[in-house]
């Protein structure tokens, strides 16, 4: 019935800051950037390894995301990585600090979390 996840939509509060974070720090590539004047909104289509994955939106005055304590809804965005230590070092070199490394109790795999510029939790899961 389904083929794959087509994309994940994220609404940010500071477009330039989030654009920098997702492209320059996380390394996603820009497929298309559009300014929608009628909505006073940017729409940035981003790819990972050539595959479209994230739609980054800006809107005037979006409401804050409820993050903690945990609320219903999307919990986090997760990226599969080969070497968690390399990712953590890259993040640290960009002044982004991760939570302590955890071990998945079911798989034994290592993972950690950071927050994007709007406190959206992002997980890095080592395969």
From TrEMBL:
Keywords assigned by UniProt, alphabetized? Dioxygenase, Metal-binding, Oxidoreductase
Q: Which CDD domains match?
A: VOC_Bs_YwkD_like
Q: From the Swiss-Prot or TrEMBL record, what is one GO molecular function term?
A: metal ion binding
Q: Does the keyword Ubl conjugation apply?
A: no
The VOC domain is annotated at 4-127
Question: InterPro entries recorded for this chain?
Answer: Fosfomycin_Res_Enzymes, Glyas_Bleomycin-R_OHBP_Dase, Glyas_Fos-R_dOase_dom, VOC_core, YwkD-like_dom
Top-level taxon:
Bacteria
SUPFAM superfamilies named in the record:
Glyoxalase/Bleomycin resistance protein/Dihydroxybiphenyl dioxygenase
Cited PANTHER family: FOSFOMYCIN RESISTANCE PROTEIN FOSX (PTHR36113:SF6), LYASE, PUTATIVE-RELATED-RELATED (PTHR36113)
Q: Which NCBIfam families match?
A: PRK11478.1
Q: What is this protein called?
A: Glyoxalase/Bleomycin resistance protein/Dioxygenase family protein
Organism whose genome encodes this protein: Flavobacterium indicum (strain DSM 17447 / CIP 109464 / GPTSA100-9)
């Amino acid at each position: 019935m389904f083929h794959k996840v087509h994309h994940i939509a994220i609404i940010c509060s500071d477009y330039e800051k989030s654009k920098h974070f997702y492209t320059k720090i996380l390394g996603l590539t820009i497929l298309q950037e559009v300014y929608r004047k009628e909505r006073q909104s940017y729409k940035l289509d981003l790819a990972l390894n050539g595959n479209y994955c994230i739609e980054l939106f800006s809107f005037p005055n979006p409401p804050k995301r409820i993050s903690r304590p945990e609320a219903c809804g999307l919990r986090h965005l997760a990226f599969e990585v080969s070497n968690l230590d390399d990712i953590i070092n890259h993040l640290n070199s960009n002044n982004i600090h991760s939570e302590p490394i955890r071990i998945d109790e079911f798989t034994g795999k290592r993972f950690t979390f950071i927050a994007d510029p709007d406190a959206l939790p992002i997980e890095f899961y080592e395969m």
